[in-house]
């Protein structure tokens, strides 16, 4: 929770306080450095690698940097989605997820090889290559100066803005007249010096006031945006969908390694197939399903997820062996199908929220959504751990695994009962 809160606060700062007139590139550089330095230190310093405290600190910083970079990029995509026509929204998100899937495939393949053939310090140093390339690529990012961008929409009332402007104008007029009186009374260098000091003070106060007003405006804008049914209700549904379905993936992993005797290299291959499934799901959604309503796509997604759990039940019951289907085939097919369906479930709301996000708080809104999503995932994992404990499922004891999966299938349809939270006619390209 602390990590999510820190990341969310950082996104508000990046949305409201530009560095050098820019809101994205400087924070992208900062997040990339946070991702790069820990791997470099761990690769060069054996003391850091052997200390659990140092490992925890460095890996936490590295994950914070990676998460910050991810949200900054999401904000940049949201800005591009809003500026482009609606027909390009799916293409931009699809290219982003497709690129991530390609990186995931390459990382899974190279990671398995590196783990088997290279020393750990060499692996840590190799981890610095991609952040270094990302740092260099920051120079290629084109960004409009924050001074040329409008303040966030939907922020606070017009009356408040008018009163604030009138108050600021009166303050400036009063300050100018007072300064003229002081300058008329002073002479020589001392008078010029005092005039310059007053100007610097006013500029400093003006900058601080702008930052405060920007933070205040972003907070109001986020609240107004979050209250929109097209954003609030799908967010609430996604959270409910996570916490009502116990996550047994960790237990299933132990079953695959201990009972089915699947080795680490094969599970790495399964992850590669999962990334390919994600790429396939992205393509299918962008090509054929953009005009489908959110309610219908989420209903079909949960039907598909229940099928993937039923496949796990077939695997646990060993029924697949009787039909001549190997365990590895079942695992590979289930991994690809599960990732493809999850992508079909996730894509429409990402595109829609990107289009509806008010200007200036793109990173904040995406950070909020991802924090809620990750919190739901965490709660779902705790629910899965509780269910496994209740049924006596643990390492070396999988007698009730079939029952646990059956309960998971049942729970998969609970979120369907809450689909009324999704606006009836909403799709990935419209918010009717």
UniProtKB/TrEMBL annotation:
Pfam families, A to Z: BT1
Annotated segments matching region Disordered: 165-203
Keywords: Membrane, Transmembrane, Transmembrane helix, Transport
Domain of life: Eukaryota
Transmembrane feature ranges: 24-42, 54-77, 97-115, 236-255, 267-286, 298-319, 331-352, 364-390, 402-422
Ranges of compositional bias, category Basic residues: 178-190
Descriptive protein name: MFS transporter superfamily
């Amino acid at each position: 929770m602390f990590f999510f809160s820190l990341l969310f606060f950082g996104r508000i700062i990046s949305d409201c306080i530009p560095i050098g007139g820019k809101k994205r590139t400087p924070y992208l550089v900062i997040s990339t450095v946070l991702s790069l330095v820990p791997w470099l230190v761990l690769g060069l310093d054996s003391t850091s690698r052997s200390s659990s405290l140092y490992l925890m600190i460095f890996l936490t910083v590295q994950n914070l940097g990676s998460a910050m970079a991810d949200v900054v990029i999401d904000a940049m995509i949201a800005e591009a989605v809003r500026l482009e026509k609606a027909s390009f929204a799916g293409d931009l998100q699809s290219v982003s997820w497709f690129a991530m899937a390609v990186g995931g495939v390459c990382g899974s393949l190279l990671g398995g090889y590196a783990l088997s053939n290279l020393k750990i310090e060499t692996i840590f140093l190799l981890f610095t290559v991609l952040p270094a390339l990302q740092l260099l690529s920051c120079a290629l990012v084109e960004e409009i100066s924050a001074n040329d961008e409008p303040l966030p929409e939907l922020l606070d009332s017009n009356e408040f803005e008018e009163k604030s402007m009138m108050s600021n104008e009166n303050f400036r007029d009063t300050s100018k007249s007072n300064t003229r009186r002081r300058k008329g009374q002073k002479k020589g260098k001392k008078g010029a010096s005092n005039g310059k000091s007053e100007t610097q003070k006013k500029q400093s106060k003006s900058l601080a006031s702008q930052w405060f007003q920007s933070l205040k405006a972003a907070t109001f804008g986020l609240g107004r945006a979050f209250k929109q049914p097209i954003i609030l209700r799908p967010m609430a549904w996604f959270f409910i969908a996570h916490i009502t379905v116990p996550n047994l993936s960790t237990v299933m992993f132990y079953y695959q390694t201990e009972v089915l005797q699947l080795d680490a290299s094969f599970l790495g291959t399964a992850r590669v197939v999962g990334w390919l499934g994600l790429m396939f799901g992205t393509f299918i959604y962008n090509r054929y399903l953009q005009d489908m309503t959110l309610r219908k796509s989420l209903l079909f997604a949960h039907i598909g997820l229940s099928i993937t759990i039923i496949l796990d039940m077939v695997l646990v019951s060993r029924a697949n062996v009787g039909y001549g289907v190997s365990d590895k085939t079942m695992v590979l097919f289930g991994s690809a199908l599960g990732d493809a369906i999850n992508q079909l479930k996730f894509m429409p709301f990402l595109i829609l929220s990107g289009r509806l996000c008010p200007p200036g708080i793109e990173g904040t809104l995406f950070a909020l959504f991802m924090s809620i999503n990750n919190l739901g995932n965490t709660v779902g994992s705790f629910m899965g751990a509780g269910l496994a404990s209740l049924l006596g499922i643990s390492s070396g004891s999988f007698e009730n695994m079939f029952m646990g999966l059956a309960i998971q299938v049942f729970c998969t349809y609970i979120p369907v009962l809450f689909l009324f939270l999704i606006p009836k006619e909403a799709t990935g390209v419209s918010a009717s």
